[in-house]
Write a structure and sequence with these properties.
With 276 residues, the chain is α/β, with parallel strands linked by helices. The protein has two domains: 2-65, no CATH class; 67-225, no CATH class. Helix content is 34%, strand content 25%. It contains eight helices and twelve strands. Strands 5-12-11-6-9-10 form a six-stranded mixed sheet. A hairpin with a 3-residue loop joins strand 11 (211-215) and strand 12. The longest helix has 25 residues, at 143-167.
């Protein structure tokens, strides 16, 4: 919650200072401003995430950690467990709570707008004048294709839920912060609406983290990057996360530029079946 307040105030201050000109600013993990060269160097870190936020007159580049470990107090964990059980059909006493978080789920109109931004230019002859170029769609998109993609996504997510809830003692929750007339595009798929508690505690910076694993002892892990199924499963199979915390700390150093352990560089993520 505090991070989001600081970030919001910083945006307001920067926006006010740049109201009459286009500015680009760079912000470190501790919300201090930095120069672009240092920012780009840090962006290359395998455990770093670089986010960009734009207004009409300001572009903010924010450096954030891609992964984070933490520990909840007993009362915090009990409140979260009670909240999840009150909203979910699964009321078993499980060892883990796993939340896949979406800041926004949207319908066809928003998807169509996003798709329209993906195109390539076709230039006539040897002319490279952008004003004379023709915009070409990279791939077709319409309402029927949107429905097919949404149904396919739902089928894949359902398989992920069944795979892990059948083999591990966990509740696998899909949660959203806001939705744009989109819930009716999902059939027999359970979403839980975040009333602000999870946004404030874990997902305070937009698009930073998207996966949360909470153990029954209150320890938790946040991921904002690609996490292969095998690496996710290692976290579930081990009560003691000390090794993984050490691997993350090492991955943040220059000594391990390609990361270490479950945070090491993973070449084939996009070519493999995965849930996270």
């Amino acid at each position: 919650m505090l991070n989001r307040i600081i970030f919001s105030l910083l945006l307001l201050l920067l926006f006010g200072a740049s109201a009459h000109s286009q500015n680009t600013v760079y912000i470190d993990e501790d919300f201090s401003t930095m120069d672009s060269i240092s920012y780009l160097k840090k962006c290359k870190g395998i455990t770093k995430k670089c986010l960009q936020y734009k207004t009409d007159s300001l572009t903010v580049n924010k450096l954030s950690p891609m992964y984070r470990f933490g520990k909840l107090k007993t009362d915090e964990y009990n409140q979260i467990k009670t909240l999840i059980q009150s909203k979910s059909n699964n009321t078993k006493e499980n060892k883990y709570i796993v939340i896949k978080y979406y800041d926004s789920i949207f319908g066809f109109e928003r998807a169509e707008k996003i798709h329209s931004q993906h195109f390539k230019y076709k230039f006539p002859g040897n002319v490279e004048d952008i004003s004379k170029a023709e915009k070409i769609e990279t791939h077709p998109f319409n309402l029927e294709l949107f429905k097919e993609e949404r149904a396919d996504w739902q089928k894949r997510r359902q398989k992920c839920i069944e795979k892990y809830e059948n083999h591990y003692p966990l509740d696998f929750i899909h949660m959203y912060n806001a939705e744009e007339k989109a819930l009716n595009t999902y059939v027999d798929f359970e979403w839980i609406k975040d009333q602000g508690a999870f946004k404030n505690k874990f997902f305070d910076i937009q698009n930073n983290y998207n996966l949360l694993i909470i153990k029954s002892d209150g320890e938790y892990f946040l991921s904002g990057g690609h996490l292969a199924n095998s690496r996710f499963e290692k976290l579930l199979k081990t009560d003691d996360w000390t090794k993984y915390k050490a691997d993350l700390e090492a991955s943040n150093t220059k000594k391990f530029t390609d990361g270490k352990g479950i945070f090491s560089k993973y070449e084939f993520y996009h070519n493999s079946k995965h849930c996270f």
